[in-house]
Design goal:
about 160 residues, ten-stranded mixed beta sheet, alpha+beta
Length: about 160
C-alpha cells in the first residue's frame, strides 16, 4: 500500500507541475522566474516541509524553459541515504553535475502566486509559498477527486545537467 501511495504522489506531482496544458495566461515574467531545473525535496512528508532545508533532492524533477516543461529523472545517483533506504533515489542538492533522462511534456503557464491544473474535467488551483530553501506548491482546497492534500516542496538545482537519450 505504501508503494502504491508513493507512485500516486509522484504521478500527481507530474500532473500538477509538468504534464497539463496551460491555462490562458500571458505572464511571461512568471515563466522566466521559473526557468531552470527543479527537484522535489526528498525528506518532506505529505504536508510537512523537509527538515533538512531541502539539502537532499528526490531523483525526479523538471526543467522549465520559457513555459515549456520537461520531466527529468536522475540516472547517475548512488546515494544510499534516500527515504526508505533506496539507493539512487535521491542526491545532494549541491551536487555539481548530474546525468538525467529528459521527457518533454508541454506548455504550462504559471501565474505569480498560483497555477491551475485542469485534468479529467476538473480544475484545481495550487498556491505557492516561498521560503529561503524551497517553494511549497499547495492545493487551495480539495475540489477535484484526483487532487490530494499533499504539498509539494521543490527547489532549484544550480549544478550542471547532462541529458542522455
Amino acid at each position: 500500500m505504501h508503494h502504491l501511495r508513493a507512485v500516486l504522489n509522484r504521478y500527481l506531482l507530474a500532473i500538477i507541475i509538468l504534464y497539463l496544458p496551460a491555462i490562458n495566461s500571458s505572464n511571461a515574467d512568471t515563466n522566466v522566474v521559473w526557468n531552470g531545473v527543479w527537484f522535489t525535496c526528498e525528506f518532506s512528508n505529505r504536508t510537512k516541509a523537509p527538515d533538512d532545508g531541502c539539502y537532499m533532492f528526490d531523483n525526479e524533477g523538471f526543467r522549465v524553459t520559457d513555459g515549456i516543461f520537461s520531466y527529468l529523472k536522475v540516472t547517475n545517483s548512488t546515494a544510499k541515504n534516500c527515504r526508505g533506504n533506496k539507493t539512487g533515489h535521491c542526491f545532494k542538492s549541491d551536487t555539481e553535475d548530474i546525468i538525467v533522462k529528459e521527457s518533454p511534456i508541454g506548455k504550462i503557464d504559471i501565474r505569480p502566486d498560483h497555477l491551475f491544473v485542469r485534468y479529467l474535467g476538473c480544475k484545481q488551483r495550487f498556491s505557492f509559498r516561498e521560503t529561503t530553501d524551497f517553494i511549497a506548491v499547495i492545493p487551495d482546497e480539495k475540489k477535484c477527486f484526483w487532487a490530494s492534500k499533499r504539498h509539494f516542496y521543490v527547489a532549484r538545482y544550480n549544478g550542471d545537467l547532462s541529458v542522455i537519450k
